[in-house]
Amino acid sequence: MFIPVDDPDAALGFYRDALGLEVRADVASEGFRWVTVGAPGQDVDIVLSQPHGGRSPADGDALQALVSKGALQAAIFRADDLAATFERLSAAGVEVLQEPTDQPWGVRDCAVRDPSGNMVRIQQAR
Predict the structure, then answer these.
(1) 105 φ/ψ sector (left φ>0, alpha ψ -120 to 50, else beta)
(2) pLDDT given for residue 20 in this prediction
(3) CA torsion through residues 103, 99, 73, 79, sign
(4) Is the Cα torsion angle 105, 94, 28, 70 positive or negative in sign?
(5) What is the DSSP string of 33-84?
(6) CATH class of the 2-124 domain in this structure
(7) How far apart are CA 51 and CA 63, in angstroms?
(8) Which of 18, 52, 53, 111 is disulfide-compatible with 32, CB 3.0–4.6 A?
(9) How high is the mean pLDDT in each 10-residue block of the chain (126 residues)?
(10) What is the pLDDT of residue 72?
(11) In what order do the strands lie in the sheet with 119-124?
């Protein structure tokens, strides 16, 4: 999974420090940087990459515009304790879009934005 981020350091403050993902790789190349993170004990990797890295200037600009508007959803995570996760995110100053809520489709979740504007939803694990 790839999530476009403006600032890899700010993204680490969110994905590593606030969400608790582990860093698996941190690579700089040709003036850009990407960081691979993942949940401890899981084999799924999430690549946090800058919009212009590896893309044409036009494509990078288009992706940057979508990220800046908050038009992209980044991911849906599950938490064993949604209330505790939400409290940790709130204490870290993360922008909250929706507090924990029981949804009509059968999950309890919340929504926040990462520092680049990507929406991230977090569900209570069943």
Answers:
(1) alpha
(2) 94
(3) negative
(4) positive
(5) EEEEEE-TT----EEEE-TTTTS-HHHHHHHHHHHHHT--EEEEEEES-HHH
(6) alpha beta
(7) 6
(8) 53
(9) 94 95 94 94 94 90 88 89 96 96 95 94 90
(10) 83
(11) 73-79, 119-124, 108-113, 95-102
Strands 95-102 and 119-124: unpaired
Across the beta sheet with 32-38, what order do the strands follow?
2-4, 46-49, 32-38, 22-29
The neighbour count for residue 48, using CB atoms within 10 Å, is 29
Instruction: Please give the Cα distance from 60 to 106 (Å, whole number).
Output: 37
pTM: 0.89
Closest by CA to 70, choosing from 122, 115, 21, is 115
Cα(37)–Cα(15) distance, integer angstroms: 8
Sorted by sequence, the CB contacts under 8 Å of residue 1 that are 6+ apart come out as: 44, 45, 46, 47, 75
| Amino acid, res. 88 | R
The pLDDT value given to residue 79: 94
